[in-house]
UniProtKB/TrEMBL annotation:
Keywords linked to the UniProt accession: DNA-binding, Transcription, Transcription regulation
Superkingdom of origin organism: Bacteria
Protein's UniProt name: HxlR family transcriptional regulator
InterPro entries: HTH_HxlR, WH-like_DNA-bd_sf, WH_DNA-bd_sf
A Pfam family per the record: HxlR
Length: 152
């Protein structure tokens, strides 16, 4: 965005550049400008006066990058529906896979233990555990590891 903004207008002062690139905080803009200057894409010119000022502009190398970045920006403006649909499909698949893997892990954990319930004479309220099974909430549950008892 910084390269595109500088390419459109020539040189810009820091505050003008920050206003042009919406949503960027001063620290991030400063770091970006330093990196671009280090890479030889942006030149920094200090101006004496009251108040002293600094102006940034693209170097010759930076101007060669402006057109490809502008084309990328135009592509993004033309294809937002496809990008959003791809994101939704990806996120949906990730959620489904995540839930399935958690259920498999929980099922394996419950397969390796044996729950023993104490019989009660009064009715018990039912509680649902994380895998959707129900068991009496007033029942005393004793967990026995299958590896210790040899039972399943």
């Amino acid at each position: 965005m910084v390269v595109i903004a500088l390419g459109r207008s020539g040189g810009l002062r820091f505050r003008d550049l920050r206003a042009t690139v919406e949503g960027i905080i001063a620290k991030v803009l400063t770091e970006t400008l330093r990196d671009l200057e280090r890479d030889g894409l942006v030149a920094r010119h200090e101006h004496a006066g009251m108040p002293p000022g600094v102006e940034y502009e693209l170097t010759e190398l930076g101007r060669t990058l402006h057109l490809p970045l502008q084309a990328l920006g135009l592509w993004a403006e033309e294809h937002p529906a496809q990008v959003l649909a791809a994101r939704e499909a990806y996120d949906s698949a990730r959620r489904r896979t995540s839930v399935e893997s958690r259920l498999r892990a929980t099922t394996c954990r419950f397969d390796s233990i044996r729950l023993v319930e104490r019989r009660t004479t009064r009715p018990c309220a039912l509680t649902t555990n994380e895998v959707g099974s129900t068991f009496p909430s007033t029942a005393r549950i004793r967990v026995l590891r299958a590896s210790r008892t040899g039972e399943r």
